[in-house]
Amino acid sequence: MDLDFSPIADSWQFLARALGVTILLSLSSILLGVVIGLVVGAARTYGGRIVSAGLGFYVDSMRAIPVLAVLVWTYFAFPLLIGHSLNALLAGVLGLGLHLGAYVSEVIRAGLGSVRPGQLRAALALGMSPWQAIRVIILPQAVIRMLPAFGSLFVIAIKDSAIASVIAVPELLRQSQIVAGQTFRPIEIYTGAMLVYFLLCYPVARGVDAIYRRLAPLGAS
Amino acid sequence: MILDWSVIWDYRWQFLHGAGITVALTVLTMLLAIPGGLLLAFMRMSPYRLVSMPATAIVEFFRATPLILQIYWTFYVLPVALDIRMSAFTTALVGLTLNISSFNSETFRAGIQSIRQGQWNAAYALGMTKAQVARKIILPQAIMRVLPALASTWVSLFKDTSLVSVIAVADLSYVSLQIRAQTYRILEVLTAMAALYWLMGYPQAKLVDWIYRRFKVHE
User: Fold this and answer.
1) Nearest-angstrom CA–CA distance, A103 and B140
2) Is residue A145 a contact partner of residue A138, using CB atoms and an 8 Å limit?
3) What SS3 state is found at B11?
4) For residues A53 and A51, what is the distance between their CA atoms, to the nearest angstrom?
C-alpha cells in the first residue's frame, strides 16, 4: 500500500477553513448548551415539582434520542413546521446545543445539589435575596466541582460536531469527505482528520483536568 | 401544511426492521466490548510498559476522536490495511466495538482500582494466585461498582448506533432517511424516527437512573 499525503497539503486552506467551522460550531453549541443547561438545571433544583417534572421530561428525552436524529429533524423537518428554511450551520448549533443542554443541566443540577442546603439557608438568613445567595454563595463552589464533568462535555461537544456533517455543515469531517471523494485518497485524508480531532480533543480533556487539580481546594466546603 | 401520517403505517415493516438492526447492533457490540474492555483495562494496568503503552494509546485515541469518523475510518482504511473484505454490518460492528471497548476499559479500570489494595494482599496471604484473586475476589465486587457506568455507556451506545447509517447499514436512521427520500413526507418520517428512538431509549434512560440508585456505593 503506497500512501500519498499530498492531497492534504494541496487543499490545506480548504481544510483549515473547515477546522475553523468545527471550532465555531463546537463553541456555539457549548454556549447554547450552557445557557439551556443553566436555566434548566437551576429551575429543576430550585423550582417546584411541576417545573422539575416537565423539564425532566425534556432532559430524559434528549438522553434517549440520538444526536443524529435531533440534527436531521432540526435541519429537515423543523423548517417545514415554521415555514422558514434554516441555514445548515444554524441548524447544527440549534440541534447540538439542544442535545448538549440536557447533559449540561444534569451536571449543573448535581453541582448545585452538592452544596449543602444549610449554606443557602444561612445566606438567606443574612438577608440575601435567593438570586444573590445562588450567585454569590452557591455557584462559585458548585462551578469548581462541576469542572471535570464540564471538561468531558466540552470534548463530547467537539466530537458530536462531526455529526453535523450529515446535514452538510461545512465542518472538518464534511470537507474531508469532499477532498477524499475528489482525490480518491480516503485513507490518508481520514487518518489526517482523525489526528486533527485528537489534537483538538486531547489537550482540552487534559487541560481541564489540570485546571481542576489546581482549583479543587477552592470547591471544598 | 397537510400532514399525512399514513406513510408511517405503510412503511411499518421497514421501520421495525431498521429498529431490529439497531437493537441487534447495540447488543452485539456490548457483548464484544465487555471482554474487549476488560482486556484493554488489564493491559493498561500491566507493569510491563510494552503491554500497557499500546493499550493506553488505543484507549486515549478512541476516546478523543469522533465516533462517526472512526466508522468512516473503519470503512475505508481497515479493509485496505488488513487486506480483508467486510460487509457494512461487520464494519459497523468492528468500529463500534473498538470505540465502546475503549470506554468500557476506563470504566473497568476505575472499578478495579476502587477495590482496596488490602483485599489483594489478604487474598495473596491466603495463597491465591494473581489470576485467582482477580477472578474470585476483585472482579465480583468491581462488577457491582461498574454496573451504573456500564449502563450509561449502554444507552450512549444505543444512540450512537444511529451513526452507522453513514456507511449504509440499514438501521433505524438509515431506513428512515431512505423512506424520507422516497416519499418526501419529511416531517412525518423524521418525527416517526425520533419517536421510535424515544420509545426505545426513554425506558432505558429511566432504567439507568434506577440502576444508579440501586447500586450506589456508600463509602
Assistant:
1) 31
2) no
3) coil
4) 6
A25, A158, A191, A198: best to mutate for the B interface, most B CBs within 10 A: A198
Residue B185: in which H helix or E strand, if any? none
Closest among A30, A15, A51 to A174, alpha carbons compared: A15
Measured in whole angstroms, the distance separating CA A168 from the mean position of its chain's CA atoms is 19
| Residue B137: closest CA among B116, B161, B158 | B116
Q: CA nearest B176 in A: which residue?
A: A69
Query: Do A22 and A171 form a contact (C-beta atoms < 8 A)?
Result: yes
Using a CB–CB cutoff of 8 Å, tell me whether B207 touches chain A.
Answer: no
ipTM: 0.89
| A25-61 residue pLDDT tens | 999 999 999 999 999 998 998 888 899 899 999 999 9
Q: Is the dihedral of CA A7, A9, A13, A16 positive or negative?
A: positive
pTM confidence score: 0.89
How far, in Å, are A175, B5, B66, B184, B187 from residue B2 at the CA level? 36, 10, 38, 12, 10
Note whether A81 contacts B165, CB cutoff 8 Å: no
